[in-house]
């Protein structure tokens, strides 16, 4: 079974930075596209970054240039470096396999990111 554990969230002022970590069981990140998602109050969950097994990355316009997704295969960990944070980035952030999300799979606990103005 796949297990995903997110960490690194917290409270930060606008313009600040945070790095989120996602530890994934087994060889999952070597063989699958991984994504970071977020859900703000009253909003739908949205994809904010994805990284394919070959290293290709994708970002929506809302975070492009500010967020960077990366991975460390040896540590079975996916990271999300968030710079120049804005209050609208406030949300619970989740890590998951993109294929699992597309199939309506399960979500972990997520990690809360709060950006103050």
What do you see in this structure?
There is one protein chain. The chain is mostly beta strands and 117 residues long. The model has no long low-confidence stretch (mean pLDDT 96). It contains two helices and ten strands; from the N terminus they run E-E-E-H-E-E-E-E-E-E-H-E.
Summarize the structure.
This protein is mostly beta strands and 117 residues long.
Taking all Cα atoms into account, the compactness measure Rg is: 13 Å
Oligomer: single chain
What share of the residues lie within helices? Answer: under 10%
| Shape summary | globular
User: What is the tally of helical segments?
Assistant: 2
Strand order of the largest sheet: 2-10-9-4-5-6
Structural class: mainly beta
The poorly predicted ranges are none
The run of helices and strands is EEEHEEEEEEHE
Q: Characterize the biggest β-sheet.
A: 6 strands, mixed
- Estimated share of beta-strand residues: over 45%
How far the N terminus sits from the C terminus, by CA atoms, comes to 40 Å
The mean pLDDT is 96
β-strand number? 10
């Amino acid at each position: 079974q796949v297990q995903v554990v997110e960490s690194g969230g917290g409270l930060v002022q606008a313009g600040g930075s945070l790095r989120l970590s996602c530890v994934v069981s087994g060889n999952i990140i070597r063989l699958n596209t991984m994504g970071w998602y977020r859900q703000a109050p009253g909003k739908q969950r949205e994809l904010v970054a994805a990284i394919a097994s070959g290293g290709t990355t994708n970002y929506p316009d809302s975070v492009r240039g500010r967020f960077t997704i990366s991975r460390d295969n040896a540590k079975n960990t996916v990271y999300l470096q968030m710079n120049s944070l804005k209050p609208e980035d406030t949300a619970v952030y989740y890590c998951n396999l993109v294929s699992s999300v597309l199939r309506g799979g399960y979500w972990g606990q997520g990690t809360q990111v709060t950006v103050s103005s």
